[in-house]
Design goal:
The complex is a heterodimer of chains A (about 260) and B (about 500). Chain A has about 260 residues and is an alpha/beta fold. Chain A has helices spanning about 5-15, 20-25, 35-45, 60-70, 80-95, 130-140, 165-170, 180-190, 200-220, 235-250; strands at about 50-55, 75-80, 100-105, 115-125, 145-155, 190-200, 250-260. Chain A contains ten helices and seven strands. Chain B has a domain at about 310-380 and about 405-420. Residues about 380-390 and about 485-493 of chain B have low confidence and may be disordered. In chain B, a hairpin with a 3-residue loop joins β3 and β4. Chain B has about 500 residues and is α/β, with parallel strands linked by helices. The chains are: A alpha/beta (about 260), B alpha/beta (about 500).
Chain lengths: ~260, ~500
């Protein structure tokens, strides 16, 4: 891993450790929340027999949803030790320790024997990685032959406006996202076939609305002030409005992609 | 202190039957370990835990979303007296008319399969007389008016000495489609047989038993290596161009890895219009299982078969293989276009609302004019670029690459999963929606396929059903249908 991508991974991981992020985004960090995770799991053919890898698992919410609702065994990996500790604690509280385990790893260098998993997932994280192709190759080599991968992420069909390239845009994974066709090509190039892209833009509208409400609530209750933030988020309202317009214009959106290890 | 918790999520309660004595028992439906389970207990035979589905999301989709207003028979044939399933049929509490009506014309068969829900075989010599068959057909017409599908079955129906006369009797009545359920032996071996069948076109379809490509599997299910029979029967059916559905009985661990291959093979046969997969129903003859049929080990559910199809035929996406609204938790289907380049799925492109709300309740949707037109419209060129989803773009891309043939109804290919209900998984909520029915040989009753094999076939009615009815000491006063409910409401005001 290059120094830059190391910095980026740890920068993003640090960012996601902040309480403000959980306060803004809720338990499931990604758009669509647990509902989209279930959709992604179904689309990836996860069953009670499946051995699943969740790359960039965050606080392990998706791993728990998949273990509890699909009966699958899930290994989550993340770069943030703090998130992993939370994930383990939450799994223990939910009585899912037999079905979930959490491992510290970078998505670009997974510590698993090739062919260990039936399904590999990566939710809302692929476009954060410096080298998406490397991450996709890792998602592929972790799979048994014929195994499925499932991805959810932003797509960007036209360049994002400058206002979205700021830090908040970065947290929302918007800035560096490929186009829908870009994902298709990248998956194909990484050795996947039967690639299916499904647009789920409703997840973004829901998420933006939720963030807007939470910001208002946090400000109104004075739960948090600008001084509490170690990073300057700025005023979120214009950014969110820009983002909404941009999505409505077709410039960006959210998708889930599934594919088979060919 | 944290409250004690169940090891499962409670979903619903229902009524089932004990798989030993077939007595009605109280049951719960719960979610645990990603699966849907039925918990029930019989006062005499103890508790049972039965796998209903290994896909909670799909189970809920089928039960909660794919619901449509049920269609009824013209008039019920029995009264609601002992309670379901002891009043078949059709009793006034059944919630579905018969989409497919079976007439078993003989008990005789030219095979003796270790797995046979009907217990047929060469040793059984009884054929139904033409008079009796006419009475059974007239019952079908009396119940349905114009039955959508009559399936001539058995035993092996083609061994009936008056087989073609039976087909004539069907043709003389207002029947939509005539299906012949056969192992294909006579079609394969007898010169001119396929040609005589072809005289009943159009509207004739062959349901051809086709379980496997492997001799050891065919020996286990059919006691006979039928590979050459399959090949020759399909050659003959292709020559005379009779629409054919391959019907595969699926046994766990035996041929559940051949689903994709059977679909592929079907798409390469010009006469084949679809494949139907049926997990073995625990009823009738179940031989050849190590130390006997063991439901915990051997039962196979619809959701397991569905996922295996999706794994083995990756061209199909989960949204392409969906519940059939008339009996959603026990029937699933996919429609696809059969092109030279392979299968192009269609179901996922259709709004489920449309499938739920249009057409008669029938398991062969494409025969309904509205749905047929809708499918044909899918591959017409009037779709605007704006209205296209990614799936539609993919679909049109594939059509662009395979333009030479004229597309039409002939290109539609159907994949169906039919899970018949056994005593283990018996769920009153579901049994009332069954739509594949058997005309009783008495010509007076029409009985769901599922309960017929558990309680009404041959000697079962006397040996098993009668004692159960005697136990129900308080006769019910009538059905719980809407009409009666309305009447009592009126009388109370």
């Amino acid at each position: 891993m290059s120094a830059t991508s190391q910095n980026l991974a740890s920068c993003c991981a640090n960012l996601y450790e902040l309480p403000i992020v959980e306060q803004l985004l809720g338990e499931s960090f990604h758009p669509g929340g647990a509902r989209l995770t279930r959709k992604l799991a179904s689309a990836s053919l996860i069953s009670p027999q499946s051995n699943v890898l969740d790359v960039a698992c965050g606080n392990g919410n998706s791993a728990r949803v998949i273990a509890a609702d699909f009966g699958a065994t899930v290994t989550g990996c993340d770069y943030s030790a703090l998130n992993l500790a939370r994930a383990s604690a939450a799994s223990q509280a939910a009585g899912l320790t037999g079905k979930t385990q959490f491992v510290r790893a970078s998505a670009e260098q997974l510590p698993f024997a090739p062919g260990s998993f039936d399904v590999s997932l990566c939710e809302c994280s692929l476009c954060l990685f410096e080298n998406m192709d490397t991450a996709l190759q890792q998602l592929r080599s972790a799979l048994k032959p014929g195994g499925r991968t499932g991805i959810s992420d932003f797509f960007l069909n036209t360049p994002a406006p400058d206002s979205l390239n700021g830090l908040l845009g970065r947290v929302l994974c918007v800035a560096g996202a490929p186009s829908a066709d870009g994902y298709r090509e990248a998956l194909s190039g990484a050795g996947f076939d039967f690639i299916r892209i499904r647009r789920v833009n409703w997840t973004l509208t829901d998420t933006i609305q939720r963030i807007r409400h939470r910001f208002k609530l946090l400000a109104a209750t004075k739960t948090i002030t600008a001084a509490d933030l170690p990073i300057d988020f700025g005023d979120p309202a214009p950014v969110l409005a820009d983002l909404e317009d941009f999505i409505a214009s077709g410039g960006a959106g959210y998708l889930i992609a599934t594919a088979r290890r060919s | 202190m944290t409250a004690k918790q169940r090891p499962y999520q409670y979903y619903d309660s229902t009524i089932s039957i004990c798989s030993t004595c077939l007595q009605r028992v109280d049951a719960k439906i719960v979610f645990q370990d990603g699966c849907v389970w039925m918990l029930k207990r019989c006062p005499q035979h103890g508790a049972e835990r039965v796998l209903m589905a290994d896909d909670i999301a799909y189970y809920k989709l089928a039960r909660e979303t794919f619901i449509k207003t049920p269609e009824q028979v013209i008039a019920p044939n029995t009264s609601a007296r002992y309670g379901c399933p002891y009043d078949c049929g059709i009793c006034p509490d059944h919630e579905q008319h018969g989409c497919t009506l079976l007439i078993e014309v003989t008990d005789n068969c030219n095979l003796r399969c270790p797995t046979c829900y009907a217990g047929s075989g060469p040793e059984r010599q009884t054929h139904r007389s033409l008079e009796q068959i006419e009475r059974m057909l007239d019952r079908a017409v009396a119940n349905e008016g114009e039955p959508s599908i009559i399936q001539i079955s058995g035993g092996e129906p083609t061994v009936h000495p008056q087989f073609f006369e039976i087909l004539e009797l069907v043709r003389q009545r207002p029947v939509g489609h005539l299906l012949v359920n056969t192992n294909g032996i006579r079609i394969a071996n007898e010169a001119g047989f396929a040609e005589r069948l072809a005289e009943f076109k159009p509207g004739l379809e062959i349901y051809l038993q086709f379980d496997s490509f492997r001799p050891e599997v065919l020996k286990a299910l059919r006691a006979s290596d039928l590979r050459n029979t399959h090949t020759r029967a399909l050659e003959r059916l292709n020559e005379v161009d009779i629409h054919t559905t391959l019907v595969a009985t699926i046994r766990r661990g035996l041929n559940d890895d051949e689903l994709g291959e059977i679909i592929d093979y079907g798409t390469q046969q010009p006469c084949v219009r679809g494949v139907t997969f049926q997990p073995v129903q625990a009823a009738g003859r179940l031989e050849g299982y190590e130390s006997g049929y063991n439901s915990a080990r051997d039962r196979l559910t619809l959701t397991e078969i569905r996922r295996k199809i999706l794994e083995q035929s990756p061209v199909l996406a989960p949204e392409d293989l969906i519940p059939v609204p008339c009996h959603p938790d026990h029937l699933a289907m996919a429609y696809a276009l059969k092109l030279e380049s392979g299968l192009v799925p269609l179901t996922g492109l259709v709004d489920p609302e449309f499938l739920i709300n249009s057409g008669r309740a029938t398991i062969t949707y494409e025969k309904e004019p509205a749905i047929r037109e809708h499918f044909l419209n899918l591959f017409s060129t009037h779709h605007s670029v704006d209205s296209q989803t990614d799936a539609m773009s993919d679909f049109l891309d594939k059509l662009d690459r395979a333009p030479p043939q004229q597309l039409g109804y002939e290109n539609i290919f159907r994949i169906l999963i039919v899970e018949f209900i056994d005593a283990q998984g018996f769920d009153l909520r579901s049994i009332r929606k069954t739509c594949v029915h058997i005309i009783h040989p008495d010509g007076k009753r029409v009985i769901p396929f599922d309960t017929y094999n558990l309680l009404y076939r041959d000697g079962l009615e006397k040996q098993v059903l009668e004692p159960l009815r005697k136990r129900e000491f308080t006769p019910l006063t009538g059905p719980i249908s809407l009409a009666r409910y309305g009447k009592s409401e009126n009388s109370s005001t």
